[in-house]
Sequence to fold (277 residues):
Amino acid sequence: MLPSDDRFPFRGKRFFFGGEVMDGMVLTDLEKRLFRRQIQIPEIGEAGQARLLKSRTLVVGLGGLGSPALFYLTACGVGEIGMMDGDTVDLSNLQRQILHGFGDVGRLKTSSAHEALRRLRPDVRFNVYPESLSQDNAVQIISRYDFIIEATDNFESKFLINDVCVRLGKAFSHAGILGMIGQTMTIVPGKGPCFRCLFEDIPPSGVVRTTDQTGVLGSLPGVLGAIQSTEAIKYLTGIGRLLVGRLLTFDALTMAFREISLPMDKRCRECGKPEEG
Fold:
């Protein structure tokens, strides 16, 4: 049994023997019980779990990809989570956007997401942004976080997140889905290619089909969003090999994963300098 709500640490504060832990490197007895299975992993341990509890992650897009990513970031112990989306819940979202339910149709996605995640872990510090990412707010918001999860459904947002993260030196995870196929890669500025190295620029309107036109398998973003949250956890704890310079694709129809190596493109105007001569 977990302690009752009046004994559970709220609003991001952590307590140890009645006093707040200021350095954030000592796990409380409650945290040791809550994250026991994760702490048992040698690569994580108590030190890695403490790093997660001190970390800050922003998820842009609270739909198919953002839903599983947020659930796992919350469950695994990230201490401060930003959630950003200016849309409201539509009935057609419920087939894949598992943060939301029938009773949430018409509500802001940030409201229903916040409600669902607080049921999972009320001690997390959640920062809610019921707005779309734009040129006006991107730098101010992204600069607050250690890792960004790009879970958007439009190229304008994907390129904006890439460009701002590269300029600020912020690591982020990209993912995209369509039909029964998905892809994901991790960008760590200075360590490998960025999103613009691969896709160059926003494609002209109508050239690339959307999920509205093609559809999407409901469980597909669950797979990709879970991978995104795993990459975030690995980056924040400093373990494993990230999907840097590697595009991972997933075909749900054939149940096949494929990895494509991505050398850094020095001609990219965001993460590299033009070649001389």
Q: What stands out?
A: The chain has ten helices and ten strands. The CA atoms of residues 18 and 28 lie 10 Å apart. The first strand starts at residue 15 and ends at 16. Strands lie at 15-16, 19-20, 56-60, 80-84, 125-129, 147-150, 171-178, 181-187, 246-251, 256-261.
